[in-house]
Amino acid sequence: MKKINGFDVDGVINIPDGGVYPGPRDVIITGRCREESLRTKELLNSKGIDNQVFLSSSDINNKTDITSGNHKADTILYLKTIGFEVMNFFEDNVNQATIIKTKCPWVNVIILTHDLVDSTDDTNYI
After folding, report:
1. How far apart are CA 53 and CA 8, in angstroms?
2. Rounded distance, CA 52 to CA 124, Å?
3. What's this model's pTM, rounded to 2 decimal places?
4. Which of 35, 71, 116, 126 is the most buried (most CB within 10 A)?
5. pLDDT tens for each residue of the chain, 126 residues long
């Protein structure tokens, strides 16, 4: 089993004047949906990040903390079935972190606490 880390985008990688960036073998699991894929790729490219990204299958108009948290946890579970164990996941949304920890108890969920961005609205910072 290959051990990796997982990273959220908004509020983790994408914060004003910085961010917490993944290592070369880590993955990005975001609540951003496929309709936001181009915008997400542009953001990550601007930061020199080219890691694999797992986007949510939720419709852009139906994204919630619950759908995003479930997408992240389900992706972590899927990765485990194909030989990649997410050991640490960097998240800024407490509701999503709780879902991840509940569904994936082996994951050390690292909650970034700050007031740099509104973790419920990703439209205001890219």
Report:
1. 10
2. 24
3. 0.89
4. 71
5. 999 999 999 999 998 888 999 999 999 999 999 999 999 999 999 999 999 999 999 999 999 999 999 999 999 999 999 999 999 999 999 999 999 999 999 999 999 977 665 545 444 333
Which CATH number is correct for 2-117, 3.40.50.1000, 3.40.1390.10, 2.70.70.10, 3.40.50.620? 3.40.50.1000
Q: Which long-range contacts (CB under 8 A, 24 or more apart) does 106-112 make?
A: 107/6, 107/76, 112/11, 112/12, 112/20
* Domain assignments of the chain as residue spans, ordered by start: 2-117
| Token code pair at residue 11 | 């509020």
